Amino acid sequence: MAVCVAVIGKDNSPKFISCLNPELELQFHYKVHTSLDVVEEKLSSAGINTGDVRELYLGLLYSTEEHKIFGYVTNTKIKFIVVVESANTLLRDNEVRTMFRRLHNLYTDVVCNPFYIPGDPITSKNFDDTVKSIMVNNI
């Protein structure tokens, strides 16, 4: 089960962070921002900063005793970070990719809203509800 989902802007500012346990939200903010260093490293080593985009899914960024952190980046340098429990051994790489594809499609729907101002935090209730269902159902 995913315990935290974050959408990070191209300037590394958080646009949306949702956690299943609000009491641990500060801990997840720290883990998400720590993973951004790994994202930048993977992007520069893969040549994505030079415009060569082959794979948007970055895979496992790093893991701790309690959590595994996965990353995904769009063509416009928007980053998606998903934190899952390490105890969840049934979660396959293909399922994580599916979660990111759904998040990317959901994000695209939000950005295409004519009332959304680019660069602002995402405050859509529909976006939040759908992200929570993705986190709980792992789909």
Report on this model:
The chain has 139 residues and is α+β, with helices and mostly antiparallel strands. The chain has one domain (2-137): Beta-Lactamase (2-Layer Sandwich). The protein is 39% helix and 24% strand. It has helices at 25-46, 93-111, 125-137; strands spanning 2-8, 14-19, 57-63, 67-73, 79-85. The chain has a five-stranded antiparallel β-sheet, with helices on both faces. A hairpin with a 3-residue loop joins strand 3 and strand 4. It is globular.
Topology diagram in text:
Blueprint: E1 2-8, E2 14-19, H1 25-46, E3 57-63, E4 67-73, E5 79-85, H2 93-111, H3 125-137
Helix pairs in contact: 2-3
Quote the beta fraction. Answer: 15-25%
**Secondary-structure element string:** EEHEEEHH
Biggest β-sheet, characterized?
Answer: 5 strands, antiparallel
Radius of gyration: 14 Å
- Rounded average pLDDT: 87
Helix content: 25-40%
CATH topology descriptor: Beta-Lactamase
Category from helices, strands and their pairing: alpha+beta
Q: What's the number of extended β-strand segments?
A: 5
Using the 3D structure, state the CATH architecture: 2-Layer Sandwich
Count of the separate structural domains: 1
For the record, give the distance between the C-alpha atoms at the N and C termini, rounded to a whole number: 10 Å
The 3D shape can be described as globular
Give the strand order of the largest sheet, numbering strands 1, 2, ... along the chain: 2-1-5-4-3
Q: Please tally the helical runs, counting DSSP H or I stretches of 4 or more residues.
A: 3
CATH top level label: Alpha Beta
Uncertain segments are none
